[in-house]
Automatic annotation (TrEMBL):
Listed Gene3D superfamilies: SGNH hydrolase
Signal peptide residues on this chain, from the entry's feature table: none
Keywords of the record: Hydrolase
InterPro entries, sorted: OctT, SGNH_hydro_sf
Protein name in UniProt: GDSL-like Lipase/Acylhydrolase family protein
Gene Ontology terms for molecular function: hydrolase activity
Length: 236
């Protein structure tokens, strides 16, 4: 079996400067890292995914089951969505696309998108930091039960300037601290994404949505991840 990176992530892993891209796009950060390390990549990700979604993928997605035996590292690229303000609970928000009839769905979606930037000033994060790390730990522990000697990497939350959230991101500091503490307690390697992409995103060099990245940021994150996992490249 060929070694590979198993990456569980949100849309920052596959969304580029203009649009969401296919999982085999060479310039998204998981593939930049895989290429630098000389391994394949299994990317399991979704738009709006939180750490809870990653745990559901761990226990229900057969792509993950197939990837675990050959994984050379597990990368948890979650937590950014968790820390963003969410005027509606995630489970409720995810029901909007299935509302019927169509006219009701369009009305509710348009109203929510209009209200979200204003409500984000007061809204709690999509997941409290304690729940984010609880789900990350479930992912880590489940993986470690089968592959105890394989490294795990967690990405810290990114930054944004998205009008959709009114520029608010109060939950980020707590999410970063909780993730760092959890990682230190369990031997998880940490990649500080916010530090890597802040100038790019806040300087307006990424996607016009103010959240997703241009290719320069993808390249920097992927290359830094490869450096963090350099022991895989050296075979030690």
């Amino acid at each position: 079996m060929s070694p590979e990176l198993l990456v569980l992530a949100d849309s920052l892993a596959f969304h580029g400067p203009e649009r969401a891209e296919p999982a085999d796009h060479p310039d998204i950060w998981p593939n930049v890292a895989g290429r630098a390390l000389g391994v394949d990549v299994e990317l399991v990700a979704g738009i709006g995914w939180t750490a809870r979604h990653a745990w559901q993928a761990m226990i229900s997605d057969p792509r993950v089951w197939a990837a675990v035996p050959r994984a050379s590292a597990l990368v948890l690229g979650l937590g950014g969505m968790d820390s963003l303000p969410s005027p509606l609970p995630t489970a409720v928000r995810e029901l909007i696309p299935v509302l019927r009839p169509e006219s009701v769905r369009h009305t509710v979606r348009a109203g929510y998108l209009r209200a979200q930037p204003r409500l984000s000033r007061y809204a709690p994060p999509a997941l409290p930091a304690r729940l984010t790390v609880a789900y990350l730990e479930r992912c880590r522990a489940g993986f470690a039960a089968l592959r105890p000697d394989v490294p795990v990497v967690a990405l810290l939350p990114s930054v944004h300037r998205a009008a959709l959230y009114g520029g608010h991101h109060r939950g980020r500091a707590a999410a970063e601290q909780a993730t760092r503490e959890w990682a230190a307690a369990h031997g998880v390697r940490v990649l500080d994404v916010g530090a890597l992409v802040a100038a790019h995103v806040l300087g307006g060099h990424g996607n016009p949505d103010g959240m997703h990245w241009g290719w320069a940021a993808h390249r920097r994150v992927g290359e830094t991840l490869a450096e963090l996992l350099d022991d895989l490249r050296s075979g030690t």
